């Protein structure tokens, strides 16, 4: 039984040298095509800028809606954390009995803290809010019951409802009110906004693919003769496709940076009136920023869409480019 001769050290070194040489050639071609595609875009600055601006406009709207939804989520979290339950005590409960019920409510599981409002304190707050001190002061009896404001540990609507049911069972509590309808409406609007944002992101992403694809298609047509020549001497589709893919990535990079700039300028432009509007309601609110992660994600998505649009356009038209 004959054995295959082991490869000589010289043959192994030759194989490694050839592999290293191919790798260096592959990297050199990538670097050359990257620089060449960038130079071709710089030689036509107006058309390149128009394409990048179209990509930026298509990226700004979904990104802006995403920032709006992010601010809505922050507002929802802030409002949910401030949600409280109000336990109204039975009529005729004295201050001493109200204090005992307040301690019983504070000992319930799921209660973070409580605040007792006696009947007299409730009447004083009511008079001050309505400005009817003289009219309400003539009443013989105080019609308002004592109440306990309860802050739940878990402000989620489901947990708050369960806590309201357990508090209503405490002796001396006549009614527990929990107003979460506005929070549920806000969450429904946020969910609707998420779906609208996703749909718009898909539509505008398709628009980016069409813009880049059409631009790359024109570039392929303008270089048809060059492609035919390199195909005749044995160039692969990957070799021919490479410069156009880099062009698509450059278009995406420029569009992503322009979109980031437009969002940043728009945020600065709207920051002052938004802060003034929030201050008029006694609140402190500022528009969210993209941040480093969000900016990188925006630019990365833009580059990916540009690269994908170029790949689709070149792959489609390479089959049509036949050497004559």
Automatic annotation (TrEMBL):
Biased amino acid composition, Basic residues: 12-21
Domain FtsX extracellular: 85-176
Start and end residues of each ABC3 transporter permease C-terminal domain: 200-316
Cellular localization per UniProt: Cell inner membrane
Record's keyword terms, sorted: Cell cycle, Cell division, Cell inner membrane, Cell membrane, Membrane, Transmembrane, Transmembrane helix
InterPro entries: ABC3_permease_C, FtsX, FtsX_ECD, FtsX_proteobact-type
Family (UniProt): Belongs to the ABC-4 integral membrane protein family. FtsX subfamily.
Task of the protein: Part of the ABC transporter FtsEX involved in cellular division.
Subunit structure: Forms a membrane-associated complex with FtsE.
Record's protein name: Cell division protein FtsX
The species this protein was found in: Halomonas marinisediminis
Organism classification: Bacteria, Pseudomonadati, Pseudomonadota, Gammaproteobacteria, Oceanospirillales
């Amino acid at each position: 039984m004959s054995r295959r001769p082991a490869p000589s050290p010289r043959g192994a070194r030759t194989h490694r040298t050839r592999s290293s040489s191919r790798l260096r050639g592959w990297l050199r071609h990538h670097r050359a095509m990257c620089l060449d595609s960038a130079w071709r875009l710089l030689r036509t600055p107006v058309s390149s800028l128009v394409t990048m601006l179209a990509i930026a406009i298509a990226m700004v709207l979904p990104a802006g809606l995403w920032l709006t939804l992010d601010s809505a989520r922050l507002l929802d979290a802030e409002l949910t954390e401030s949600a409280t339950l109000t336990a109204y005590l039975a009529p005729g409960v004295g201050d001493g009995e109200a204090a005992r019920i307040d301690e019983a409510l504070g000992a319930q599981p799921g209660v973070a803290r409580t605040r007792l409002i006696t009947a007299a304190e409730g009447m004083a707050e009511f008079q001050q809010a309505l400005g009817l001190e003289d009219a309400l002061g003539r009443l013989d009896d105080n019609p308002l019951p004592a109440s306990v404001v309860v802050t739940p540990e878990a402000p989620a609507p489901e947990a708050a409802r369960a806590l309201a049911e357990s508090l209503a069972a405490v002796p001396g509590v006549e009614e527990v009110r929990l107003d979460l309808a506005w929070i549920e409406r806000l969450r429904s609007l946020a969910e609707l906004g998420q779906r609208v944002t996703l749909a718009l992101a898909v539509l505008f992403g398709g628009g980016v693919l069409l813009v880049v694809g059409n631009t790359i298609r024109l570039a392929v047509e303008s270089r048809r003769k060059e492609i035919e020549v390199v195909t005749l001497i044995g160039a692969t589709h990957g070799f021919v496709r490479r410069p156009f893919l880099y062009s698509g990535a450059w278009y995406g990079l420029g569009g992503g940076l322009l979109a980031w700039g437009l969002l940043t300028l728009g945020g600065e432009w709207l920051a002052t009136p938004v802060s003034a509007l929030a201050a008029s309601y006694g609140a402190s609110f500022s528009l969210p920023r993209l941040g480093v992660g969000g900016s990188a994600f925006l630019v990365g998505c833009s580059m990916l869409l540009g690269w994908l649009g170029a790949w689709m356009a070149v792959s489609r038209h390479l089959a049509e480019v036949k050497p004559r």
